Predict the structure.
Amino acid sequence: MKFEIMRDRLLDGLNDVTKAISSKTTIPILTGIKIDVRNNGILLTGSDADITIQTFIPAEEKGDQIINIVETGSIVLQARMFNEIVRKLPTNDVEIEVVNDFQTHIRSGKTEFHLIGLDASEYPLLPEISNDNKFEIPADLLKAIIRETVFAVATSESRPVLTGVNWMIENDELICVATDSHRLARRKVKLENLPGDIESIVIPGKSLNELNKILDETSNPVEITMSNQQILFKTDHVLFFSRLLEGNYPDTSRLIPTEFKTNITLDGKTLLQAIDRASLVAREDRNNVVRFETLEDEGVKISSNSPEIGKVEEQIPVHSIEGEELVISFSAKYMMEALKAIDGQGQEVIIQFTGAMRPFILRSVNDDAILQLILPVRTY
């Protein structure tokens, strides 16, 4: 195996596939990157058995030669070391050659590294997914869906299924839900050609966070193929496979209240900034709790109190208050993340309460596609 390649293009490919590689894997060969040199270009593959990322670097692009392929072949090279070497090579011209017993020579300028590779035939095969359940979604919409839901997944492994985002297909709508049992984030989106055979899957939050980094580099539609065990996201020259989480995701629809005792409409940015200030005191306390109460003169008071630090109070105006007076406490962190998810930076949000110790919901006044639910905190 022998080829010459531009260092910056090789690095771009390595940056994608190394996102899937974990030093904690129990399969030694998965600490490596698989390099497949073909006549039309190079395939790079990285995997931790849960996530597999494959990227293709074409030999030619728009008439420019990116790779000069002298001899095809395959090798697995230790990922961290190979990445560091390529990053620090002195010129943009790189030659890689594999000779007897997987001895790999990496040359650039007057620098030459000799690495011991591994047999590529030992590397696990890519997951097989049927093309039956396939649909497309714009990259920026997929990024928005991830941003608006994935922060609410559970971080504790005590209920593994809650560490993922539940994607449900109902009629022509994709419904994405994440909950850690203290809060819930839901995003609905209407899409064409959604698969009819699969109604519900759970995608690990970790996978979606890594996918999001790759989506930064594309504006083209993402092709999504689903099965009962795997999901594949295909964009530009990158394939991103993720294992799905097993188990039944809880029915969260019954958690969302439909009748409310207090409705408050206000500016999302003003509320976010007030809670951010209150959290300066709140976060010194173990629970990071902020108190929220309605005032008679059509405003609300945000306050926080820490025995060791002191307290803060702030009144903010609202556009409207309907219903009963209310005093409620909640996590400042959860509230700020919810406001950022509904992009409450420059628009009106409505908060709907069913009582001081019942879950409440936030959404944009103009759009109910994004819904956030938070459980209050008992402070007595």
About this structure: The radius of gyration is 25 Å. The mean pLDDT is 93.
